[in-house]
Amino acid sequence: MTFLLSTRSRSKLQRVDEDLVNTVKTAIGITTVDFGVICGLRTQEEQKALVAKGASKTFKSKHLEGKAVDLMAYIKGRACWELNVYDEIAEAMKLAAIDTGTSIRWGAAWNIPDITLWESSMEDAMNHYIDERRNQGRRPFIDGPHFELSV
After folding, report:
1. pLDDT tens column, 97-140
2. Average pLDDT over residues 28-46
3. What is the rounded distance in angstroms from the CA atom of residue 11 to the CA atom of residue 33?
4. Is residue 57 pLDDT above 90, yes or no?
């Protein structure tokens, strides 16, 4: 089944970097899991609120520059936060980024600057990140819906 971006999702891509927009538009056509865009460009105030509630860790988010998007998975038309579903979206984003020639970082594998160069599955990429953080004695910050340009 081929999915399409809704009008709302397309509106969330306004003022987002063209390479990232093209990657998202390519990914929706090849994904096995439906998704929508829930966030593109953010204001400073929105970012401060997200940091305050722990949903973000930085005041230097690429969302502030239009160089990041958050994608929401939909299973049978309902929003889904199950992490394994985001592995599938990440696979589509990886393939789309290869197709568009765009370097992408995924928020569940922060240690991989460009997922297009990762030779295994996105699930393996996430597990690699988790293992690396734990080996450092640090807690991983998993943000499965987040994709940003590697620049």
Report:
1. 999 999 999 999 999 999 999 999 999 999 999 999 999 999 99
2. 96
3. 20
4. no
Q: Show the tokens assigned to 112.
A: 């991989």
Angle (CA) 29 33 37, round 5°: 70
Secondary structure of the chain in the HEC alphabet?
Answer: CCCCCCHHHHHHCCCCCHHHHHHHHHHHHHCCCEEEEEECCCCHHHHHHHHHCCCCCCCCCHHHHCCEEEEEEEECCEEECCHHHHHHHHHHHHHHHHHHCCCEEECCCCCCCCHHHCCCCHHHHHHHHHHHHHHCCCCCCCCCCEEEECC
Confidence of residue 58 (pLDDT cuts 50, 70, 90): confident
Topology at the third CATH level for domain 7-149? Muramoyl-pentapeptide Carboxypeptidase; domain 2 (3.30.1380)
Q: Look up the pTM and report it.
A: 0.95
